[in-house]
Amino acid sequence: MSAPKSSLPNKPVAADRVRSADLPVAWIMMLGLIVAVGPLSIDMYLPALPSMADDFGVSTAFMANSVPAYFVGLVFGQLFYGPFSDRVGRVKPLYIGMVLYVIASIICATTNNEYVLFAGRTLQALGACVGAVVTRAAIRDRLTAKQTAKAFSIMILVMGLAPILAPSLGAVFLQFFSWHSIFWFLAAFGTLNLLLTKFFFFETLSEENRNVRPAKEILSQYWELLKDPTFNYPAIGGGLLMGAMFVYISSASELIMDTYGMSATHFGWLFGMNAAGFVALTQLNQWLTNRFRILSILRFGAMMQVISAGALFTLGIMFGTDAWLPLVLVCIFFCISGLGLTQPNASAIALAFQKQRAGMASALQGSLMFSVGIFGGLLLNLFPVNAVLKVGIAMFALMSLGCYLIWQIDRNLDLDNAD
User: Fold this and answer.
1) Per the database record, which ranges form the Major facilitator superfamily (MFS) profile domain (predicted)?
2) pLDDT given for residue 5 in this prediction
3) What is the pTM of this model?
4) Beta-carbon count within 10 A of 116 CB
5) Is 340 helix (H, G, I), strand (E, B) or coil?
6) How far apart are CA 89 and CA 390, in angstroms?
């Protein structure tokens, strides 16, 4: 029996909810709120990096290392929650992760030491990443491949508001309070997630579909996933494309505020425009999936991102930091907006053929994304070149490789009958 589209469903038995015929829109939007804790945690404090650097007596570039520190927690946390949720269900991991997130946010809010902040950010990510793992797996538990692509688009409509509003919201907090207040807000948002889990998140993984293989086989199961061509090409390719965005996030404050002298308020607006483009294309993706094959849309989006990243790379070579800022921002805009066509579809394909290991597949896919973010952040520090070229090199290299892998996906995959 399918859930009504207009209201949040009751908590039925998991087996009765799996593979619903209709899209449970309200439930998907609630999942978007749970996942929004991730982008809020990444983006909201970015305008505060220069003031945090002043307080700690370090450079903005050094303080920006707190972004890769957060990604480290996301990588390892997801690899734990994936198999754990396949074994015990989707609800318990959410409770554990959100409690950890709230505690870590309080640590970040109360510290005056940069290394404690870095550790707190890693711990914060270890908690926050549970939302992305469990919600992707829960959607896979319940919906078909085409519905999954649409569901991810709907979910991004909600969670996508976080990166649009987060930098501006962070800038507002800075006008009236210190940067510590941003982390107090995040602790409150984590508490909200706990309440949503308690009252509205039902179990989607039935007992018979749980992974009962011994825990000692986890590494071998991850290796089996990596060797599966129905998973590895879309997951790694999509991870490289998404990871390039995290490279931009790591460098955005230095590029836009330090290099081009933008204020924290204007930075928030510019950052929000990119997120708005991302959300807009995810909604277009819902319409496109009714008319075109998911793989065709994915390939088109990947090409859009590569061309845009190549243009940014060219600007960096030819003009460096003298490049006209609006043109730089347009290139970045299309790089980020293109994710609206690549991420829902890459995720849908990667999870389509994973039934009893959907949590592991979701975790590995997410970890691959943030591993690229960490690698890309380190890559930025290797090039003693201007800020525009540095970002252009990293994004173009990652997106080119991601696009290549996307084009290796078997065009004859029967996603309609995947289970």
Assistant:
1) 27-411
2) 41
3) 0.68
4) 13
5) helix
6) 43
